[in-house]
Amino acid sequence: MLKRSCLLAIAAVAALALLAPSALADGAGVTVVLTGVSGGTQGGVYTSPYFGSVGGVNGTAIVCDDFNHEVYIGESWTAYEYNFSNLSGARFQGANAAATLQMYDEAAYLITQLAQNPSDSGDISFAIWAIFSPNVLTTSGYLQGNAAWWLNQAENQKFYPGEYSNFLVLTPEDTGPCSPQEYLVMTPEPASLLLLGTGILGMGFWSRRSRITSQLCS
Length: 218
Known about the structure:
Blueprint: H1 2-19, E1 26-37, E2 41-42, E3 45-46, E4 50-54, E5 57-64, E6 76-83, H2 97-116, H3 121-132, H4 140-143, H5 147-155, E7 167-172, E8 183-186, H6 190-217
Antiparallel strand pairs: 1-4, 1-6, 2-3, 4-5, 5-8, 6-7, 7-8
Helix pairs in contact: 1-6, 2-3, 2-5, 3-5
């Protein structure tokens, strides 16, 4: 029974790893479908997080970093996945590779804050858009709240190499003026999956030990 429980636990962890978008992707093509929005709005536009199917994985939370393009619910497109170790193919480019990484690090930082401060989703969304599109700074959605404060917070962070290795950039294959938006997605870190697997295995051992103890005391 114990051996079977261990195998089931390992299979469960493996399944989770397969279901999540790969954090090791580097220019791999994937089909993205926008399936829904969170319902929040500011300045007349929906704010993050949005929801989509990424590579067939439904219910994935995705965050838009691209104010100047549009996607409609149900739209499907091909995107390239880039991790932060190589952003040369991402839509937004700074003066050099370091400047590009700085922009995406700031966006990733704000996404982590979005999860912790859902009531500020509008301001954080506009702060993310402002990183990549300067015209956002003059929009009503940016000016009406605390987006400037959140942008300043992101710009003043000190990032260490690989800090956001669990993020992927979903850059549309089509780069024309009517192309889809670019999105960022957070993927489970390998350490988190390992911890989950260890917990499942631990539960299996504890369950077996409890059964043995119960038999000895009966």
